[in-house]
Design goal:
By secondary structure, this protein is mainly alpha-helical. Helix content is 76%, strand content 6%.
Length: 174
């Protein structure tokens, strides 16, 4: 679905683009539910699933910016934050520390989908002041989630070292 979204945006097919966007979000929720419900959670999945989610989110942001539906400032803030989280998660995974999502990331994702959904649906009629206010709010929520994870990571890493944990350390990702 990742490459389909920009194609639809560039073709100015708003209904199809928003449908792809919503289906990807719903599929992510269903996939997570199935993994938890049937105990199919793996360390690889804990890393891969958020990576694909971030890839979709970044693709959406870049596509909407190139189409001039949203301004560049919020995209830059969110892209820098997301890329930092992706790189940090990959580095930690290589050190046997699994970064997985919790309510910080889920709150950020729900906020992202709600705001971006409204940006897509109302891109022709949304006043710039509302658009900017929503995007600043989204950037603040995403940064707050990252800070929450940084605090959680610091505590978990410290506890892991103090306890002499020899197994995988569980850390959260935004």
């Amino acid at each position: 679905m990742v490459p389909l979204f920009p194609y639809l945006v560039y073709r100015d097919n708003v209904i199809a683009a928003v449908t792809v966007f919503l289906i990807s979000g719903i599929m992510d929720m269903v996939d997570g539910y199935i993994a938890r419900r049937f105990d199919m959670i793996t360390n690889f999945g804990k890393v891969y699933d958020p990576f694909v989610d971030k890839l979709m989110q970044l693709t959406v942001l870049v596509s909407l910016t190139v189409a001039k539906w949203i301004p560049v400032f919020a995209v830059i803030i969110i892209i820098v934050k997301e890329l930092a989280m992706i790189v940090t998660g990959a580095v930690l995974y290589r050190k046997n520390i699994v970064v997985y999502s919790n309510w910080y990331g889920k709150a950020g994702t729900v906020t992202f989908y709600a705001i971006i959904f409204s940006m897509i649906i109302f891109h022709d009629i949304m006043p710039e002041t509302i658009k900017y206010a929503l995007l600043w709010f989204l950037a603040a929520v995403m940064i707050a989630a990252a800070i929450g994870y940084l605090i959680k990571f610091s505590k978990d890493a410290k506890n892991s070292v103090n306890k002499g944990n020899n197994g995988n350390t569980k850390i959260h990702s935004a």
